[in-house]
């Protein structure tokens, strides 16, 4: 598929938000207008297979009066839900954080959720996967822009095409969690509110992103040998009232190729001092490897020191 996607999963995560009173302006100072035809809200009217439906679902997806469950807490399940109306404006997505919860232990959970903006919809794939990269703290939120030509590297959890991301402990929370995605004038920003503090934290901020109009929004989730409930509570989409230059207004945005201008390759995106990419905190594996390296260093220094000391002792004996 070509387009933009964000992931929320055991190795990756990404979600949207439902507006609450927060301490920063996620609209970036722009007026906004709710686009009901692109929004998914309780009691989830307009979801189904009828000609008038604005949302289609596939696979294990279950629509209730309280949530849309993409997968149950069972093995080897896949589900998705897709907006049937093509997006023709710049907008911001706001969702009550999808709830990810299950009976598994802290590090034993499902493959996660992905949010999509793609040319085609209702096409199952295999992007979300179990944790493969031990140098990343999971759950993890990250973004990818793809024109259909970039393969997804499962062995490194998509690190070769990741634009930016952050770790986010959102599983089995007792309180509501939120995430906001804003795309305006070529800038993609993702913010999260997951600590029940009513304040936003920046997760991703990438410039030089070009996305066409006329694509579809959707969300999908999957489980493998490990599982979780992946629930959507709400997904509200707002049109941002943004001023454009005459050159921008003259462009046919339906023919734009998804792309992003970067100062460096995405595969080098860890610990970038420029701030274009996010470094991740130390995990148990990282601490273990650092301690192991430190221990090996101490052992090597001890052996070298013992050998040098023995050589000096032998040299001193020759003089007596």
Please provide a written account of the structure.
With about 325 residues, this protein is an alpha+beta fold. It is built from 2 helices and 19 strands. It has helices at about 245-250, 285-320; strands at about 5-10, 30-35, 55-60, 60-65, 70, 80-85, 90-95, 100, 110-120, 140-145, 165, 180-185, 185-195, 200-205, 210, 215-220, 230, 235-240, 260. The protein has a 7-stranded antiparallel β-sheet with strand order 3-6-16-9-1-10-11, with no helix packed on it. The protein has a 6-stranded antiparallel β-sheet with strand order 2-18-7-12-13-14, with no helix packed on it. The chain has a 4-stranded antiparallel β-sheet with strand order 4-5-17-8, with no helix packed on it. The longest helix is centred in the last third of the chain and has 35 residues, at about 285-320. The chain is elongated and about 95 Å long. It starts with a strand and ends with a helix. Residues about 5-25 and about 265-285 have low confidence and may be disordered.
Largest sheet: 7 strands, antiparallel
The number of distinct helices, counting runs of at least 4 residues, comes to: 2
Could you spell the SSE succession in H and E letters? EEEEEEEEEEEEEEEEEEHEH
What's the rounded overall pLDDT mean? 75
Span between N and C termini? 81 Å
Q: In which range does the helix fraction lie?
A: 10-25%
Uncertain parts: 7-24, 265-283
Q: What is the radius of gyration computed over CA atoms, rounded to a whole number of angstroms? A: 24 Å
Spatially, the strands of the biggest sheet line up as 3-6-16-9-1-10-11
Instruction: Tell me the β content.
Output: 25-35%
**Structural class given helices, strands, pairing?**
alpha+beta
* Silhouette: elongated
For the secondary structure, the number of strands is: 19
